[in-house]
Model the fold of this input.
Amino acid sequence: MRTALFPGSFDPLHNGHLEVIETASELFDSVIVAALSNPQKGEPLFGDEERQEMIRESVAHLDNVKVAAFASLVVDLAREVGADVIVKGLRATSDFDYELQMAQMNEAISGLVTVFLPSASSRSFIASSLVREIARLGGAARVSAMVPAPVAKRLEERFPA
Ligand code: PNS
Done:
């Protein structure tokens, strides 16, 4: 049984993330989506519980996907949950340098390999940071097609037009 771990901030989950999860769920027997809880990264827009809840609702159609939160090294979580690989999405070459460095560091400290999944070009511009910024400035409805419905609902509740 092959298990993939997909770690991220997911603040909030967007359609590019969902695409990675759906592809990983076809490629692996089981997928664990783990949302980082990191106070040093600054105050997230959505708290740990809410981010996990939104992910859970957004992946409800995928039987082999579980959701977790973590506040540790990703490689320690991987060992804890028995993951065989880390999965990450790549939107553009701008993601590559940082993701490659993290993949190499994680491999160096644990032997754990990272598998990269390219995002569809139609979604490669979507980023959680831009979704947050647009929603905060009154544009929640304009990004609703770029995030799963449970996320769109919460963004519109949080930032009514
Ligand atoms: O969605 P993000 O912000 O790009 O996700 C980054 C994340 C959470 C995957 C990365 O910061 C991470 O793995 N953090 C956990 C702590 C850790 O293991 N750091 C060492 C990375 S080499």
Remarks:
- Helices lie at 15-27, 48-58, 74-81, 93-110, 128-139, 149-158.
- The pocket of 4'-phosphopantetheine is lined by residues 7-9, 36, 73-74, 102, 105-106 (CB under 6 Å).
- The domain at 3-121 is CATH 3.40.50.620 (Rossmann fold).
- The chain has one domain: 3-121.
